[in-house]
Structures are given as structure tokens and as C-alpha cells.
Amino acid sequence: MITVLITGFDPFAKETINPSWEAVSRLDSTISNANIIKLQLPTEFKSSREKLRTAIAQYCPDIVLSVGQAGGRSGITPELVAINFDDASIPDNAGYEPHEETIEREGENAYFTQLPIKKICVTLKKADIPSYISTTAGTYVCNHVMYEAQFLRSTEYPQLKAGFIHIPFLPQQVVDKPGMPSLSLDDDVRGLTLAIETIVKELA
């Protein structure tokens, strides 16, 4: 039985909820015969890395899938690449606001995901869930966590497969944001479940 470590974030930027954790926390504990370990990460540059590293050491997952909020996007978007660059437009939840900083001095400029992101998008679209590949995870904590997972893979856990998926705002987050797209929590959970099923099928 393979193990999938899936992470979501706590709320940030004056939001009271974060769809990533709302969805991750509702996933089944077993999906496609894979053991699902759910972990909430702080929306903080420094401590998110340490919590992720500790969890990987503790659970020895075969796959790490991190999930984050991407307000303004209209679908579930698997990320192609993480870059070695922190540049925050707002402070994180610890008040830290890095600008044009390297994440890991010994790391590559960028790392590509090992997850089958094209097949994930195809699967979700067939289920009538909007989905498209993203080629930028930004330069905030989401990219930071995706990059750190890849750096850990490259330096300590070569058997690991890792990636990141962004999901839109929930409907209740856009009540006062006219024109802003959203996706229901039910579709988020269904989409992430389908994504994990696809990952397990392709990589197990």
C-alpha cells in the first residue's frame, strides 16, 4: 500500500478560511488503496518547510501532494514547476516578507513536478470540473513549499514523487468580490480525489 502525504494551508491575507485545507481535511483516509495522510501547513515561509520535512521523515510517503489557494483562478490547476525564488507581496502569517530571496542556495533554479499533471487535467475535465495546467506557482508560500518538497526529493528522498495543485476561492470568499471566480467545496474534494486516483494509477 502506498502512502500519499497531502497538505493544505491555514487561512491568510485576512481570509477566515482556506479552501486548500477545507478540501484536504475532507478527503477519505484511503483513496485507490493508497493511505492518505493529511497535514495542515502554516502559511509561513520558514516553518512550512520544517513541518513538511518532519512529516516526510515521519510518514515516509511515496507521494507528496501539496494544495494551495489561488484566488482569481477559475479551475483546479496542477503546477508544472517550482522556482528557487521567494518574493512576497504581503507578509506571511508570521509577519515575514522576503523580497527576491533564494530559497535554497544549493538548490537548482527550478524543479519540475513528477506528477502526471496533463492526465490529471484530462480526468477532471471529463468529470466536468474545470482544470488546466499552470506554469507558475507564484513566488509566495505555495511556490516555496512546492520547491522545498522538490529540494528534499533531490537531496534526501530520491524515491519521492511530489507536486502541487492550486484551487480557486470558495463561493463564500467571493461574496464581496464581484466577478471573482470560485469553485464549490464539493467540487474541490471531488477534484482532489480524482487527482489522487490518477496519480496512484500512473505512479504506483
From TrEMBL:
The yes or no answer to whether the keyword Nucleotide-binding is present is: no
Main subcellular localisation: cytoplasm
Q: Which reaction does it catalyse?
A: Release of an N-terminal pyroglutamyl group from a polypeptide, the second amino acid generally not being Pro
* Enzyme class label: hydrolase
Which catalytic residues are annotated? E79, C142, H166
Question: Pfam families attached here?
Answer: Peptidase_C15
Q: PROSITE patterns under this entry?
A: PYRASE_CYS (PS01334)
Q: Where in the cell is it found?
A: Cytoplasm
Q: What are the record keywords, sorted?
A: Cytoplasm, Hydrolase, Protease, Thiol protease
Extract the InterPro entries matched here: Peptidase_C15 (IPR000816), Peptidase_C15-like (IPR016125), Peptidase_C15-like_sf (IPR036440), PGP-I_bact-type (IPR029762), PGPEP1_Cys_AS (IPR033694)
Entry EC number(s): 3.4.19.3
Superkingdom per UniProt? Bacteria
Q: Name one GO molecular function term.
A: pyroglutamyl-peptidase activity
The similarity comment for this entry is: Belongs to the peptidase C15 family.
What is the protein's quaternary organization?
A: Homotetramer.
Record's function text: Removes 5-oxoproline from various penultimate amino acid residues except L-proline.
What name is this protein filed under?
A: Pyrrolidone-carboxylate peptidase
Its lineage opens with: Bacteria, Bacillati, Actinomycetota, Actinomycetes, Bifidobacteriales
